[in-house]
Amino acid sequence: MSYIYGSFAEVYDKLTKDIDYNKWADYIELLFATHGVSPKLVADLGCGTGTFCKIMMQRGYEMIGIDSSTEMLCQARQKIKGDILLINQDMCEFELYGTVDAFVSLLDSVNYLTDKRKIKKMLRLVRNYLNPGGLFIFDINTKYKFENIFANNTFYYVNDDICYIWQNTYDRKKHICEFDLTFFERSGELYKRFDEVHYERAYEINELAEICRNENLELQAVYHELTLKRPRTNSERVFFVVRKK
C-alpha cells in the first residue's frame, strides 16, 4: 500500500467532506457498548489523515494512528495538535510498544489487502497486540458493491477548486477492482494534474469470517452499514466485530 495516497493525501479531506466522521465515531462507540467493552487505548489501522483519530481523542480516548503513507501522516500531524502516536508502518507489518484495548480499521482499508495472506498477517498482529477480550472492528466494501456499483463504471466530481475522473475496471474472476484516478487541483490561475492507481479486492463475508476464526479471533457479529442489523443481499458496506478470546 505504500505507493498509493501520495499526491492524493493533499486533497483527501476535500474529497471526503461527505463522510460524517462524527456519525462513524458514534457508531464505533455504539459497537463498543453493544459488545460490552470500554476501551481506553485504541489503534486505528490505516488512519489516513487522522480525522477519526482526532474525533476519538476529543471524546477521551487515547489513540494510535498507523498508516503506510508518510504523506497522509503528515496531514494527520498538522491536523491533530494533541498528544498522539502516529506510526508510519504497513498495517500487515506494524509493531507496537505494548498492547491496546481495541483496534479499528475503517473506510474499506481491509479491501486494499488484495492477498489473503496479508489479511492473515494483519489479524495475527492484531491478536498479538490486543488485550484479552478486546475488539477489532473493521468494515469492507461488499462484493455486491464491486459487482453492481463500482463494476466497470466511471465517476466524476467537479467544483471550482478540484475535480476528478474515477474509472473502474473490475475483474470478476480475480475479484480485483482497479481504480484509475485523475485529479485536477486549482493552483492560482492553473490546474495541477496528478494520477493514481488503487486496487481493492472484493471479499465474501463468509470468507473473511472463516479467516478470522482460523486466526483464533472470535467473530461477534457482522452488521449492515452503520446499523445493528444483519447484512442484506444488497448491502454496500458491512462491519465486522471480532474479539480476542
Question: What does the model show?
Answer:
Helix 2 (about 20-35) packs across helix 3 (about 50-60). The longest helix is centred in the first third of the chain and has 14 residues, at about 20-35. With about 240 residues, this protein is an alpha/beta fold. It folds into 2 domains: about 10-145 and about 205-245, 3-Layer(aba) Sandwich (Rossmann fold); about 145-200, N-terminal domain of TfIIb. It has 7 helices and 11 strands. The strands form 2 sheets. A 7-stranded mixed beta sheet has the order 3-2-1-4-5-11-10, sandwiched between helices. A 4-stranded antiparallel beta sheet has the order 6-7-8-9. The protein has helices spanning about 10-15, 20-35, 50-60, 70-80, 115-130, 145-150, 205-215; strands spanning about 40-45, 60-65, 85-90, 100-105, 130-140, 155-160, 160-170, 175-185, 190-200, 215-225, 235-245.
* Assigned CATH superfamily of the largest domain: Vaccinia Virus protein VP39
* Overall spatial form: globular
Biggest beta sheet summary: 7 strands, mixed
Secondary-structure class: alpha/beta
Regarding CATH, which class of the largest domain?
Answer: Alpha Beta
- Give the SSE order as H and E letters: HHEHEHEEHEHEEEEHEE
How far do the termini sit from each other? 29 Å
- Rg, rounded, reads 18 Å
Helix count from the secondary structure assignment: 7
Helix content: 25-40%
In percent terms, what proportion of residues is strand? 35-45%
Average pLDDT score: 94
Shape-level CATH architecture of the largest domain:
3-Layer(aba) Sandwich
Runs in which pLDDT lies below 50 for 5 or more consecutive residues are none
Would you count the extended β strands for me?
11
Tally the structural domains: 2
Q: In what order do the strands lie side by side in the largest sheet? A: 3-2-1-4-5-11-10
CATH topology of the largest domain: Rossmann fold
